[in-house]
Design a protein that fits this description.
With 365 residues, the chain is an alpha+beta fold. The protein is built from 3 helices and 19 strands.
Length: 365
């Protein structure tokens, strides 16, 4: 009986022996491999998430800005129900701003069809086929190598008109007009047969819209009186006429490129950044074969448009980049923006290109 007990005790002692050094090293190596694998999976998943998140943000920004530009381009040249052109009373009217054109654009130097553009070495210089001077903007505001354009349109106001008065130089309103002094105003008769474009000279809170000769405001009015046959009663409509410049600039706060919109107004309105990260914009214009045409026969750059009244549509391409580097490697990438081969900086930013074609509604009616 005691012999069996001794055998059992020896067997138990044999089972309690520890790990050898080799076994411990193997276990540590396996654990290290598993840990490195987990870290690699986590790093890859994190990188993929950051890239997906940045691309999703770029897509959202692209949808927003293209939708916004579509709306404004579509309404370029809007003058309510007016049939034909209004009588322009502005002193020395500028066809680019507050003029009769719906749109005027400028092409950046060396960015035409089949041209190659390096964003790191783009040159200053813009022009168009009609030889128009660009709107006045601070030096260095518009980024080299990017196109820009101006849209003209009338925005309806809630003002209720109450007949011409003041020796034919003003139109009374039921209450305060709500239109600032110096604003460019378009009045359209109730029958849509005629209208007048001029600069408002009465005070902001006045119960009238005067059309006098006002010193200190540009462009001013060439003649103070309305035509004798105008009827601006309660059936007529008042619009505020606006000119808007779209361009690619640089944010003063972040130093990043972005799409800016600036109202070209008589009171010196400041530019508004619509979305950050837009580093290039290229534009083509759909031109009808003859004046008054309703279809685009071809799309050309601004340098090839000599009559802007023949432009019936626009094609806009934007190149956007992420705010932070998210790619695995640094590289220069090339994008085709409406026939212009654009080469980016060498970096790890994600990029997205978007294109939209918009018909100018008031040119197609």
């Amino acid at each position: 009986m005691s012999h069996k007990c001794r055998v059992t005790q020896v067997q138990a002692q044999s089972k309690q022996q520890g790990l050898s050094l080799v076994e411990l090293m193997i276990a540590l190596a396996l654990g290290l491999v598993l840990t490195l694998g987990v870290i690699q999976v986590f790093t890859s998943a994190s990188q993929t998430y950051r890239l997906t998140d940045r691309v999703a943000q770029l897509q959202e920004d692209m949808r927003f800005i293209l939708g916004r530009m579509q709306q404004e381009v579509r309404m370029a040249g809007h003058r309510g129900c007016l049939v034909g052109e209004p009588t322009n009373h502005l002193n020395a009217p500028d066809p680019v701003v507050f003029g009769g054109r719906s749109i005027t654009g400028w092409e950046a130097q060396a960015t035409g069809l089949t041209d190659e553009l390096d964003l790191t070495a783009a040159e200053n210089g813009w022009g168009n086929g009609s030889g128009d001077a660009a709107p006045i903007v601070p030096a260095g505001t518009i980024r080299p190598g990017t196109d820009f354009f101006v849209l003209n349109s009338a925005q309806r106001t809630p003002t209720v008109l109450d007949g011409i008065a003041g020796s034919g130089t003003q139109v009374n309103t039921v209450n305060s007009s709500g239109i600032n002094q110096g604003a460019i105003v378009l009045l359209v008769e109730g029958n849509c047969a005629a209208g007048d474009l001029f600069q408002k000279t009465s005070n902001d809170g006045a119960n009238n819209i005067a059309k006098g000769n006002m010193a200190g405001y540009t462009p001013g009015n060439a003649a103070p009186g309305f035509p004798a046959d105008r009827v601006y009663d309660g059936t007529a409509t008042a619009y505020e006429y606006t000119s808007t410049l779209y361009y690619i600039g640089t944010s003063a706060a972040t130093g990043e490129p972005g799409l800016f919109r600036q109202r070209v107004s008589t009171d010196g309105a400041t530019a508004q950044e619509l979305v950050s990260g837009v580093e290039s914009m290229q534009v083509l214009y759909g031109v009808s074969p003859a004046a008054g045409g309703r279809r685009a026969a071809q799309y050309v750059t601004a340098a090839n448009v000599d009559n802007w009244n023949n432009v019936v549509s626009m094609r806009i391409a934007l190149l956007m980049r992420s705010a932070n580097p998210v790619q695995d490697v640094s590289e220069a990438r090339q994008f085709n923006l409406l026939g212009t081969q654009v080469t980016t900086e060498v970096d790890r930013r994600a990029r997205l290109m978007g294109t939209v074609t918009v018909a100018i509604r008031n040119r197609l009616q």
